[in-house]
Design goal:
Elements lengths: L13 H8 L3 H9 L18 H15 L4 H11 L5 H35 L10
Length: 131
């Protein structure tokens, strides 16, 4: 592990990184173990010290996960962001996820119609045989 110089010691602790990103501390450690977030340098006392790069990368991971990307898809996106793929590979991944998003939207629209129709048929009374 790299040692932190005095100028880097003013970086973020794992707790501060957690608060800034809204990501659980254990989740941050998990992402490090999975290689999604690079291991941060450490102080002479062994404490992790994160910087803006870690903050940005973790924010990207969290947002990707919020959008429904799997860990493997996030890994692929990070490789793309790091410049390790061709434009055709980027397009293929984007189109694949776009197809998945469209299927989810269609499913949600179907669910919305079903719930709306159910609510419209219900009178809101106290009878046990509500449609």
């Amino acid at each position: 592990m790299k040692q932190v110089t005095k100028s880097r010691a003013a970086g973020l602790t794992i707790g501060a990184l957690s608060r800034r990103t809204g990501c659980n501390i254990e989740t941050i450690r998990f992402y490090e173990k999975q290689g999604l977030v690079p291991a941060p340098p450490r102080t002479e006392g062994g404490h992790r010290v994160y910087d803006g790069t870690h903050l940005q990368r973790l924010g990207f991971i969290r947002r990707s996960r919020d959008l429904g990307f799997t860990l493997e898809e996030v890994r692929a996106l990070l490789r793309l962001a790091d410049g390790h793929h061709t434009c055709a590979e980027v397009q293929a991944l984007a189109l694949e996820h776009l197809d998945s998003v469209r299927r989810k939207i269609a499913d949600l629209q179907h669910l919305e119609r079903t719930l709306s129709e159910t609510a419209d048929r219900c009178t809101g009374g106290d009878v046990p045989d509500c449609p």
